[in-house]
Amino acid sequence: MGGKEPEEEAACPHRFSQLQRLTLIHWKSQLVSESCPRLTFLKLSDCHGVTPNTLIMLARACPQLHSLDIQHSMVESTAVVSFLEEVGPRMRKLWLTYSSQTTAILGALLGSCCPQLQLLEVSTGINRNNTPLQLPVEALQRGCPQLQVLRLLNLMWLPKPPGRSMTPGPGFPSLEELCLAGSTCNFVSNEALGRLLRGSPNLRLLDLRGCARITPAGLHDLPCQELEQLHLGLYGMSDWLTLAKEGSPLLTHKWCHSLRELDLSGQGFIEKDLEQALAAFSDTPGGSHPALSSLNLRGTRVTPGTVSSVISSCPGLLYLNLESCRCLPRGLKRTYRGPEEVQWCLEQLLTIPLSPS
Question: Are 293 and 260 in contact (CB under 8 A)?
Answer without folding.
Answer: yes
